[in-house]
Structures are given as structure tokens and as C-alpha cells.
Amino acid sequence: MSTPRRSPGPRSPAPATPVKLIDRAGAARPVTGGSPLIPLRLIDAPLQRLYVASVAAGLVAVKAYQCWALVGDGLRQSPGLFIQWAVLDTLFLLVVWRLRIPLLAFPWFQYLFLAILAVLLDTQLFLFRHTVITYALQSAGLQVLGTFQRWRAVAYAGLYGRPPSDNPILGRHTVHVLPHSIAKFDLTRSRPCVNTREASTAAVITLPIIVNGTAPATIQFTHQPFTSAVVETYSETVSNRKKKLARVQKGEDWSIYHYHLQVQLPGVYRLLHVRDDMGAEFRLTSQAAVVTECPYARVESAEPADTHGGTLARWLGWSAPSPLERNQCPGDRVAGLQVDVFGVPPLNLVYGRRYLSSETRVTVDDIGTPKPAAPLPDLNTPADVPIPLDQLAPYCAATFAHPLSDVFTEPGDHFLVVLGVTDRFDHQSPIIPPGQSTHLAHVRVHPLPTVQLDATDGVVRRLVAGSPPDQAPTAALAFQGTAPFHLTYSLTAQAAGAVVNPAEEEIKSLTTNRAQAQVRLNTAGSLILHTLRDAHCTVRIAGAHPRVTVETITPPLLTMTAAPIKAACVGEIGSLLTLNLQGEPPFRVTYRQTHVDRRDSRTLQAQVDEGHQTTLRLTPSVVGRYTYEFLAVADRNFPRGVPVRNTRYTQVVHPQPNAIWHSARKQVGSAAVPRHEVCRTDRVTLPVDLSGTGPWTLTYQVVYRPTEADEPPVTTPVTVEHLTGNHYDLTVNTDVPGGSITVDLLSVTDANHCVKDLALPEATVRVRTHRPTVALQCATWIDRHRPISNEASPDIPTVWFHQGDSVNFPIQLEGEPPFVVTYRSRVPTARGSSYSRNVT
């Protein structure tokens, strides 16, 4: 008699060890203390804190032991212990404060506060007896002692303290007669199934049993496979595996228990006996439990595997194709793939067709049973009596092959994946990840090969008359698909547009491993494409066949007429060349431009899309001497070009002249524009800097705007010629009643007749209307200060004042403030002095 092994439960993961970050010798120190008393190079900060924590833990342990001794003696007071611990706690905190350990170097008043708290706690523990803390410690201590107490055996003294005897116990007794205990399989939720494809430890399942009544001690059950009439008996001791679910009545030993029998073989399990510790039998209801095999499905190859080819590929180091991979063309049906479905019929299969990010689900019902299934028989028969095999047939599982004939039209990678299978008892197979080959098939739909010509129908290829065969035109072919490519084509001597007789065509073939190929057209006629085959698919080129016709052509010709300008300025039109072209447009003229002074040359091209004549402008942007040499001309028929005779042109490009205000060289913004404010008839000069080739001609205009608003402005254009120096002082006439004068530089011309229009900010000159005046107000002031007449100069008033006093002379100013007044003071017997003062 054998019992199934229990499957070991999954190991719980080890708890994560917390990581504690501690500072080292270089940790930041608190600002409340100085450097540690013990240097960190001898003992680092974490180790010092560990020592302090160890001493503190030891003190707490000793204090707890002595306090517990007092509690065991009835909370007796101990002034000696109080003094001892008060001194120890205070000394400990004092030493910690003095050590100044990082992260423990708190201010002194905090340690003082901790010392006071420690002394108060010692007072509660060792002096005062009836306190809340002592009662709490007493209660907690009693609980701890009760936990660690050992049971002590006491002999039973019998009735009235006498030793027991063989006589029955006298008195009245009450006997409770309980109903029979009941045991049954609990299969109301689902029917179990076992996965026979997995390992024995992973395929173990549990059969739930509900027991109503006393706790059972042993459970005996039988097992009969679906394909055998042999009944095997098993026994399980379950007294140590009960799990109480609910209690019916409080105070009675009448409960509901839940047990699980671990099994791993399919078949019929029936309860035979359930007994308790006293040997009492349980009544059994619903003692039969059917355990079927779980369904599953996998994609398999319907074709026999090529073992020799796979072995040879592995021996050569190649990767042999997987039997679940198929290569096909669009529109073909999948061949050689099937889904093997295993389970109790009828089976329902669900598989998916995945393409890119989309998935199409396909459902196949009633696999394995063409007709409705027969009803299931009742298997609740005596456990030791075999069940007939015909009654067990509806529970037997089998394998059924469902061929796949899907059609894929989109090129790309398609995947056939089994999503699930359901058997007769609604058992569903677990979804296996798509990466497993048992549930996944890869169908690679290759696109149809294509070929394209570099010409459309009716395009004519030109062949130069008398050219060698290797210079004949070619038709470029571009293939798309999987190499190698095999193309069939024909070269006919028929004229373009003529009806071609296929029987008269000479079919040729072209095989290449490259995506690009060329067919040389060395005779007159047309090229016709027929079929194309790559490594996977074959396609017939239908419709109008692209044709290429060969004709004789002549090379292009270039002639030029020009009246070149030997000298020009930067930005002007320059040389104008008229190009006369012969051939088929578009044309491309290639010429070389060389800067003689810099010895720099570059090749340029002139494109003529339409027509046979164009004008070419040679306008260099850099000053210097240039030569132009025409090299080749190309047209539609000769894209590589045909050399032309050397034709050279020479051109000299002069720099553009320029004129700027002199102040703009050193300043920027508004400060770079000359601005002056003068009086009438004052001399104003505006410096101008010239660049280019002298002598220059400068043109500017002067605009005078009077102060009176009703008077119109006066504009005067001025042209100055033969300026030989790079610097010119422009003089402005300020002999006007008053107002503003603006000077605008218009243009400058150098010796090479290069003209440049100037766009500079205008210079501004503001002319005041009147000059400032000053006068002494002597008449009014002298009348108030009683002057004394001066005999030497009777016209000059004289004022006498004592030495050390000051005299204020009022003056009258006319003009625009602020003013600067300059006056002179002298003593008749001494030399006079001049003074100046700012008056706002």
C-alpha cells in the first residue's frame, strides 16, 4: 500500500537585509562640539559609537536585573541602589559628552536634561514603591515568568484525598450521545485534473475532504485508473493535519474540518474508511472523486523530420530550420502544420494568428467527438468494487490532430500560437509563453520578387555610331526579393511598336545574387522581360512588357559668342556669354573658374533644362583676376559629357569703394554717429574715412531745418571730387539763424568707376539761436546798500565793507542753462585772479 508523496512547498525568499549607512573618519562633524577626544585615526567614529552602545546595553541589563529582583521581593525600596544608579547614569552621560563622538556630540544642556531624566527614572524604580511604573513592571514580569514556567506533575490523590482504587467512581454521570460523524469529498467548486506532462513533484494536486464531527485520525481511500480494473488502497494519517473551519456549538467537540489528499495519478478516487482516534467509523457521502488529465495543445509538424539533413547541418555548423517554421508566398495555404490537442473530448481549441501588433483569434469546437457526448455515469459505488471500463471511457483523455490550412496574404512574419484548450469538464490548459516551440509556429510569408527597369515603355536608348561593343547602352535591372534571382528575357530585332511573335523570340536567362544587374543592348531592337524567380517565389511579368529601343545618336556640340568685360566691380553684371547648344536637352555645361591671384580654382556647371541657347553671367564675389575655361558639354543622350575645345576668358574684379564716419571705427551704436551742438558761425568738421582705389568722388547732401515750424527745410546736394587721401574732413556751414543741420552720405566712386550707394546714419548739427549773455544788476543792488562814490572812477560804483565780511553781487544770465560764469576779482595794489562757477 503506497501513498503519494507530498510536494514540497515553495521556499519563501530570504528577508532582505537592511543596509545601514554609517559615516567613516571623514564624516561631517556636528557644529555643537569640537574634535573628538579620541582621534578618529585610532578609532573611527562608528566603532566609538558601537562601544558606547555596548556599555549602555550592559548598564540597562544590570539595572533591569536588579529591578526585577526588587519586584520579586515585593517591590522593596533600596536607597543604596538608587544612589548607585543615579551616580552611574550621570557619570556615563558625562563621559559620552566629554568624548565628543560624531553624531553624539550634543550640547551640554541636552546631556544635562538626559541626566535629570535618568535620575527621575531611578527614583521611580528604587525609591517609590506604589507608582504606575512599578505596577506596570510587576505585571509585565509576572507574564514573562508565566511564559517560562515549567509544568509540574502532581499525583492524583483520588476521592476525598485518598489514593485511587480499582472501584468505579461513585456518583451521577451525564453521557452525551453524538450523531455519526460525516466525511465526503468537497468537489462542488471544480473538478480536479492532473498535468501528466510535468514532473511528479509539479503534478501533485489535492483532493479536498470535509469532515463534520469529531476529528479523524486515518483516512483510507482507493484508486482505480481509467484503463484498468485494478483497485489500489491507500491510507493517510491526518490527525496532525486538521484545519478547523467552523465550530457548531461552543463547549462541545463537534466541528467541521477540512483536509487535502495529495494525488498525482488520474483515475477514480473513492473513500473507503474514515476513523477517529477511538476507532469510530465515519459515515461517507459523495465518496467518489474523478481526477482526469488536464488538456493541452501544441503545434506540431505534419511532415516527418529530416533527421539526416539536421544532423549534417549541425555537423557543418549551420543552423538547421526548425520543423515549426514555414516559408511560403502570399496567397498560399499553410502546409505541413497541425495542432495536437490532448484531453477528454469534446475539446474546444482557441489559437491566434499574430501579425505585427494585431491578433486574430480562431475557435475550433467539438474536436474528437462528432456527435453529442453521452451522459456521465454515477461512480459513487463501493470503494473496493472495480468500476467497469465502459463506464470509465467518457473520462479517458486522447490526442487528436487538427490540421492547419490558414492563408496569409500579407508579407511578413506570421505566428500561429495556441491560446488555450478546454475539455469536457471545462478544464483549461495554462497559457504557455509564446517563446516555447510547443505552442508557437512561425510562418514567414515572403513578398513576391519584383524587377524594375531604369526606363519605361517606349524610351529609346541611343547608341553612338561606330562605338565599340563595350560602350553599348545597358538596361539597369533592380531586383527585390531573396537572392539568387533568375530572370528570363528576350532581345528582338523588331521595330518599336511592331507585333512580336513569341515563337520567333530567343529566350535568354540571367542569374545573379545581387540586387542590381545590367543587360547590355548592343543591337537594335527591344528588350522584353518574361518571368522572375527568387529563392522562394516565382512570378510571371504580366501586362505590357517594358521595352527599350536602341537607336543611333550623335554627341552634343557647344559654340559660344561673347563680348567679355575685362574689368568689373564686385556685384556688377560681369561677363555675358551666349551658349549655343546642339543635341537633346537638358544640357549641362562644365567650366573651370580660376582665381589667378590666389591660385584657387573650382569647377562649375551651368544647367540648361529647355531650349538650345542660354546666356551665362560670370559674376565673381571676390576681388581679383579670374580666368574661365570651358571643359565639356552633356545632354540627355550623353550624361557623362563630351569634351569641347579650350575656350578661355579673362576678367578682373575690382573691390567696391566705401565711406564711413570716422567715429564709427572706435564706437558702436548711437555714439558712432557724429552729433554736435554749436552756436552760430562756429566751425564744425565731420571726419569721413574712405576705402578702395583713389582718387574718390564723394556725394552727400545737407538738410537745414529752421527752428520756426512754418519755414520749410532747405536741401543742398554736394559732390566733392578728386579726393586723394583716405581721410576727408567734411565742413558744415553753421551761419544760419538757428535750427538743425543733417548731413547724409549718399554714394562714393573710386578710380575704377565702381560706385557704391551708402546707407549710413545721418550726422546731426544743432545750431543755437542766440549766444549766452551775463550782466551785473548794479542799480538795484547799490540802492539798497548805500554806495559811496569813487572819486577815481565815478562811473564805477564802489561799496565799502569791513575786512572779513562778504559781499554778494547779483548777475543776470540769458541763454540755455546750465551756465558756466567766469569772472575776475583783483585788488588795486595786487594782481587780479580769475574765477569760474557753474550756475544752473
TrEMBL record:
Domain Nucleoporin POM152 immunoglobulin-like: 554-658
Matches recorded under InterPro entries: Ig-like_POM152_1st, Ig_POM152, Pom152, TMD_POM152
Nucleoporin POM152 N-terminal transmembrane domain sequence ranges: 44-127
Transmembrane segments: 50-71, 83-101, 108-128
The keyword Transmembrane helix appears for this protein: yes
Residues covered by the Nucleoporin POM152 first Ig-like domain: 184-291
Keywords: Membrane, Transmembrane, Transmembrane helix
One GO CC annotation: nuclear pore transmembrane ring
GO biological process, one term: protein import into nucleus
Protein name: Uncharacterized protein
